[in-house]
Amino acid sequence: MPAPFDEPGLGPGEYRARGDIVRSLVPGAVLAAVPEARAAAGAEGRRLRFDFLDDAAVLELLRLRHLDEAALHRAGTRLGIPTALVSFALFAGWGAYVQHWEPGREKYLHYGLCGAVGVLVVALYAVTLTRHWGSRPRQNVRARAAAYRRIAHLARDHGARLPDAYPHYGPYPFAAVFRPEAEADHDAAEAEAYADADDPDMPADRRGGPPGAPDGKGPR
User: Fold this and answer.
1) Distance between CA 79 and CA 132 in Å, rounded?
2) What is the pTM of this model?
3) Best CA proximity match to 210, nearest among 22, 53, 59
């Protein structure tokens, strides 16, 4: 597992949780001190091919989980705001003028335009959801993040002193199925899944993976 990539504004052992709040990683030794959590980490680790007690690996996982959530939020914003504005304009036009028109070519054209816009919106949402929710490497990240959350909560329930709600994000109820076949193409798929070359808010080193090498893939 490569060392976790750096992110501006984050110190060693820090990651961004839900709400973009900076949190600190709880060392794996704290979880391993609870027999039930240690056993769960071993079982989930074998199932998901991941070491849940490796601090560097878990820190990378939590940072990738944040990128996944942020990417989905950006996609929703980019689609949701234009959709709301266009829908309001069409509805306002219908309320002000179209419903009072006599049946004719203009009225049918307006209804045809509404239908075309509806089909386009559905298609855009389908493509966006397929790209974000359907990405197999990102599903692996979600599955591992959800498993880590269960392990942390198990440790806390059996006496470990963990911050409330750690690791400070909810479970993934959907699209969190582990895909072993996606592991072979992890590096290339991760760059595609988390990078957005046209997003000015995304650091340059994110567009090709973790920094540290000319190809952007970082040390191995």
Assistant:
1) 13
2) 0.70
3) 59
